[in-house]
Amino acid sequence: MALMTVSEVAEFLAVQEVRVERLERESLLLSKDKDDAGNPLFDRTDVEKYKELAERLGGI
């Protein structure tokens, strides 16, 4: 399982970091772990699936 930081997810999804944090807070994108500073870490596979679904629904 490859974990991605908030900034990596934001870059992959082409959105701002605050948007990724909101998706996590609203349980639309679930974090798998936390880093030493308490920031969420996301599984790359979950992020890819989320992006695919969002694109099918009309965008992120």
Automatic annotation (TrEMBL):
Protein known as: Helix-turn-helix domain-containing protein
Taxonomy of the source species: Bacteria, Pseudomonadati, Pseudomonadota, Gammaproteobacteria, Alteromonadales
